[in-house]
Design goal:
The structure is a homodimer.
Chain A (H helix, E strand, L loop, with lengths): L1 H5 L5 H5 L9 H11 L14 E7 L4 H5 L3 E7 L1 E10 L3 E2 L11 H15 L8 E3 L3 E4 L5 E2 L2 E10 L2 H17 L5 E10 L2 E2 L2 H14 L3 E6 L4 H5 L4 E7 L15 H19 L2
Parallel strand pairs in A: 1-12, 2-11
Antiparallel strand pairs in A: 2-10, 2-12, 3-8, 3-9, 4-7, 5-8, 6-8
């Protein structure tokens, strides 16, 4: 949130008025935290910035599987999220022949099958996830009259992400019969490419220090996404166990964290000397 | 329930102790209803019975679509219900490549695709329904770690129903990887074939009265299912609008209901004269 406001991607008022589950706004929480801190002199935000480098656990399993210590992050993949709503007709599971059904579940099944095929790339770069899927009325002997589901679609290249997103709309319309299908795009975050000169500095630093590294695209979003609009930006990843993050079992090896910090220090020192 | 107890398929104690949503047992409800009725002499249950004939709306769209007034019911199709539980692993939708996922949703999708194909008969006789389908944790950007769904499978012929039910277990095991799949059979109600001599009597009576008729299998269960164990049994169907039943919009044309009652009366009079 801080980086988005700093880069002007989100207005300050919008960020301060965001509410958590208990209804507390970010502004209220910030004021209450600041009141508990010892007084400190205020200083202006560091803008314009010369460069921005962020070190992070990968939050994925790629480095761990490859046995590499440093991820040279080339950018952040783009993300499109869709909400799909399918309206059919409830019917008795025993008495209604297939040809007479408007089965919202089977229509959803066909659409998702088409999208699974569309997003099946040999390089395993496309991320396609159906994370929420709800069926109504949800009774074993009733043909579902309504289904709601989400599609989460990610790719590092804007053109591919555009093509795949177009495929979501096309599949929903092509396979709608005998139901009616409504698709809404909930989120469209374009891919970010980091500054190649910063990426090269990180790769060179890791090489000089003898750390095994791997070029990687960030699957998750980071502050660097917004900072990349303001200045030269790059990221350094280290492995984390099982790719798990945002969870109590998140864990990274101390020697990997130290390696990431050493690369970060080296690159920042280099950039500061420019 | 009454016919199941009468035919000995369910013990009386079990039926009387069944509870509704408010927690009232059938026994309590019956006693409270009987207390409000004028006293009447009790009489023994009419067993042994010579024959049992049941008239009913079709609860399906077949007669209405075919434009026939009387359904000559040859029997009640069998029903098997299954509960399928798929355990995978929650993962970040952005950072986890397909090859590293144990996506419970996509495993469910593959299993259901195989079953939709297995149950696709040209005659449209098989009934295959996924009515309940729940995904956990149900967040758009989390690969689902668990899915629970039901399969409702019906067919008039016991052998076919056995084969298709076997196919459910086979598909769940064949396509389980990389998740683990647990299948339980929740319900197995065998098909019932009515007495052919009673079915012929109903067909002849409808013919003599000039009602357009159609041979049909009951998709829903009826009292006749249990009575068929005790005596010669048959059923007469009439059309209902849109195949809708157990719903406030259930409706049947008065002339269709009258036609059904006339056939019922004719057949019962015939049988009583035997």
């Amino acid at each position: 949130m801080g980086s988005a406001v700093h880069a002007g991607a989100i207005p300050l008022e919008e960020a301060l008025s965001a509410r958590d589950r208990d209804g507390t706004t970010a502004g209220e929480a910030l004021r209450s935290m600041l009141a508990q801190l010892p007084k400190a002199g205020s200083r202006p935000l560091g803008s314009p910035a010369h460069a921005y480098i962020e070190a992070h656990i990968e939050q994925g399993p790629v480095l761990e599987t490859a046995g590499r210590r440093i991820g040279i992050v080339s950018g952040i993949q783009g993300l499109r999220q869709f909400g799909v709503s399918i309206a059919g007709e409830e019917a008795h599971a025993g008495t209604t022949p297939r040809a007479r059904r408007r089965d919202a579940f089977m229509t959803a099944h066909t659409i998702i099958g088409a999208l699974a095929q569309l997003t099946m790339d040999r390089a395993d770069t496309v991320r396609f996830t159906v994370g929420r899927f709800e069926v109504f009325p949800g009774s074993p002997n009733t043909v579902p009259g309504r289904v709601e589901f989400t599609i989460d679609l990610r790719h590092p290249h804007a053109g591919t992400l555009n093509r795949l997103g177009g495929g979501v709309f096309a599949a929903c319309h092509r396979h709608a019969e005998p139901c009616t299908v409504d698709v809404r795009e909930l989120l469209h975050s374009k891919p970010v490419l980091f500054d190649p000169t910063v990426v090269t500095r990180i790769r060179d630093a890791a090489g000089r220090m003898g750390f095994a590294s791997l070029d990687i695209v960030s699957g998750a979003t980071h502050d660097a996404k917004y900072m990349a609009d303001l200045c030269s930006t790059g990221m350094i990843f280290v492995p984390c166990r099982g790719g798990i993050s945002h969870n109590e079992s998140e864990w990274a090896a101390p020697e990997d964290l130290a390696a990431g910090a050493e690369v970060l220090s080296e690159v920042v020192t280099d950039l500061a000397a420019e």
